[in-house]
Write a structure and sequence with these properties.
316 residues; 2 domains; single chain; 63% helix
Amino acid sequence: MSEGESKFGFKDMEKALETLKLLEDHDMQYRKLTVRGLLGRAKRVLTLTKAEEKLKNINEAIGVFEKWLEDNGGGASSKNAKTDNEDKVETVPGLGFKDKAAAEATLSILAERDPDYQRLAIKGLIGSSKRVLSGTKNEDKINSIKEGVQVLEDFLEKFEAENRIKENRAYLAYAVVSKLPEPKEDLSVEFLAAYGGSKAKGNYKHLRTMYPKEDDTTSWDIVRNRQIAKLLEQIKSEEAKLFDSESGEPTDLHLQLIHWAYTPQPDKVKAYVEKLAKKTPQKRKPESSNNSNSSSANDSSSDDSDDSVPKKKKRE
């Protein structure tokens, strides 16, 4: 490990900014991979940390990394599916900070959305407000903006204090979900069609502005979070297992969860999918042979049929 790499870290905002500075000497792909890796580690550390000061410092570092990734097309979370697509993601409409009412409306719009997006959006608005304030001279406007920003800052402070980021349900990549049995529930079928469809193309960020056919007021990201919450509660109340102890395949209830692009054990699910992929070629060989035999049998049957036609004609 080089001297520069040994200085990478996420203990606080200053360390995160220093890390980004050190990474400027590397190519963009390396920078994105490193930042994603640090984000993943930081979020794991958060789940084990109880000291409020440490939580606050690490959360600030996470905010720096997430903002950098968002600005550089690298996605908001190392745990989420890769979204380095060139397609432009629509902004969730209605977010603002011009006054207290606008800020409260913003919090209402963000309610039930992914916690990592809530934090990212709020921090982005607070940052934008500072730029707007620096160019505003009207005292009434300044006071209104400050009142709006205060609402957002209060929310963010509570968000960090309660460590709500732990409630984030990172998206399982569509490429993984699509290799497992298809869902039976119509809503799950429609969700996956949207997630892997021509607009989203596996980029979960698009789901924030996409809606089910029967509900044009509740976006797919909110629908997803509601469904996941129900299933997790059912799994908890039934003390249900996530994997079959013998085959290692996801249980039916776990599969329902996966159909909403979420699993508490993504690595194990990915390993199972990889295992399936390795088995597939071995299973197809005898099928190919059978198909060949079947084809030969069909050809033979066809030949017999052809032979019988002229015979009948001769008899006539």
